[in-house]
């Protein structure tokens, strides 16, 4: 009898989480060039910096173990995963608190890759 009351929750919560994760993945992988992304790697900030450099991106901000980066060409996120990034999300959405990175985006046009 208890399973009838819990069953919708056991089915609904994973489905909602899977739909959210899929939408984040699609929005991140198919982002337009020039969109800042937050990069997290298993080895911390140094591993994330190495992934950004190897992928040909520009570093905007380092905050804890996360690096905010940007690139001018498509496929940047795929190259980040290829070079060891564990988790990559859009940095200019409401879900990330990288407000100083938004100001740095305006200055990134004159930045050079590291």
Give your account of this protein's structure.
The chain is α+β, with helices and mostly antiparallel strands and 114 residues long. The protein has one domain: Alpha-Beta Plaits, CATH 3.30.70. Helices cover 48% and strands 19% of the residues. Strands 2-3-1-4 form a 4-stranded antiparallel sheet, sandwiched between helices. The longest helix is centred in the N-terminal third of the chain and has 28 residues. The mean pLDDT is 80.
Q: Would you tell me the structural class of the helices and strands? A: alpha+beta
Mean pLDDT: 80
CATH architecture annotation: 2-Layer Sandwich
Residues in β-strands, percent: 15-25%
Short description:
This protein is 48% helix and 19% strand.
Keywords for this entry:
114 residues; alpha+beta; Alpha-Beta Plaits; elongated
Topology:
Layout: H1 2-29, E1 37-41, H2 45-55, E2 58-63, E3 66-70, H3 76-82, E4 85-90, H4 99-107
Antiparallel strand pairs: 1-3, 1-4, 2-3
Helix pairs in contact: 2-3
């Amino acid at each position: 009898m208890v399973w009838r009351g819990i069953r919708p929750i056991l089915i609904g919560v994973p489905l909602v989480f899977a739909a959210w994760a899929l939408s984040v993945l699609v929005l991140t992988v198919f982002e337009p060039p020039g969109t800042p992304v937050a990069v997290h790697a298993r080895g911390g900030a140094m591993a994330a910096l190495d992934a950004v450099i190897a992928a040909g991106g520009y570093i905007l901000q380092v905050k804890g173990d996360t690096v905010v980066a940007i690139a001018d060409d498509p496929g940047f996120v795929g190259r980040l995963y290829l070079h060891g990034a564990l988790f990559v999300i859009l940095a200019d959405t409401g879900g990330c608190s990288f407000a100083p990175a938004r100001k740095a985006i305006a200055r990134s046009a004159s930045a050079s890759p590291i």
